[in-house]
Design goal:
Blueprint lengths: L34 H9 L8 E8 L4 E4 L9 H18 L9 E5 L4 E6 L3 E7 L5 H17 L1 H4 L10
Antiparallel strand pairs: 1-2, 1-5, 3-4, 4-5
Pfam families: Fuz_longin_3 (PF19038)
InterPro entries: FUZ/MON1/HPS1_longin_3, Mon1
Family: Belongs to the MON1/SAND family.
Length: about 160
C-alpha cells in the first residue's frame, strides 16, 4: 500500500480467528487443518489469493469506498468496463426493492465470478477467476474485509463530515 495502492497480491495471510470479534463474517465454516496449503495451491497463477482479480469495498457509515488496482487479466479498458458493468448489475439486483434486500450473491459466468456481500456497515464487490472455488472466494472476501478494517485509518477520511457538492 505504501507504493500507492491496494493490490490483491498484497492481501495478508489468513489471520487467526479473533476472539470476541463482533464483526460479521460471511460463511462461518471452520478452516480445515491443511487450509494454508490448500489456499496456496488454489491461488497459484490466478491473480491474487484464490483467484481474486479485483474488489470494491464501500464503507456505508463513512460513505467512502476503496478499490484495489486491477490485476491480470483485467488489464484493458474493455475488460475493466465489462467488470464494472458486472458490478453495476450485481448492485442493481442487490438493492432491488421488488425482491427485498439481499445480503450475498455469488454469480459465475465465462468472464469471472462476482461475489457481493452487503451488511449494515459495508458493501463488498469482488471479482475472481471464472474457475474460482466458492468456499475459497468467501474466505478471501472475509480476509479483504479484515484487511480494509485493519488499515481503514490510512485509506479513509475518518471524522470528516460527508462531502456536499
Amino acid at each position: 500500500m505504501l507504493d500507492g495502492g491496494m493490490r490483491v497480491d498484497d492481501l495478508p495471510g489468513y489471520p487467526l480467528p479473533r476472539s470476541g470479534s463482533d464483526s460479521p463474517h460471511l460463511g462461518q465454516a471452520k478452516l480445515p487443518t491443511n487450509y494454508s496449503e490448500q489456499f496456496r495451491e488454489a491461488s497459484a497463477g490466478m491473480g491474487g489469493p484464490a483467484g481474486l482479480w479485483h474488489f470494491v469495498y464501500r464503507s456505508i457509515y463513512l460513505d467512502q469506498y476503496v478499490a484495489s488496482e486491477f490485476s491480470s487479466p483485467i488489464n484493458s479498458p474493455q475488460q475493466q468496463k465489462r467488470l464494472y458493468r458486472g458490478y453495476q448489475k450485481l448492485y442493481a439486483t442487490m438493492h432491488d426493492n421488488g425482491s427485498g434486500p439481499h445480503k450475498t450473491q455469488f454469480r459465475r459466468d465465462e468472464n469471472f465470478v462476482l461475489l457481493c456481500w452487503v451488511t449494515p456497515d459495508f458493501e463488498l464487490y469482488a471479482a475472481f477467476d471464472p474457475l474460482a472455488d466458492k468456499a475459497l472466494a468467501i474466505k478471501t472476501c472475509n480476509r479483504v474485509c479484515e484487511w480494509v478494517k485493519d488499515v481503514e485509518n490510512e485509506i479513509f477520511l475518518l471524522g470528516a463530515s460527508p462531502f456536499s457538492w
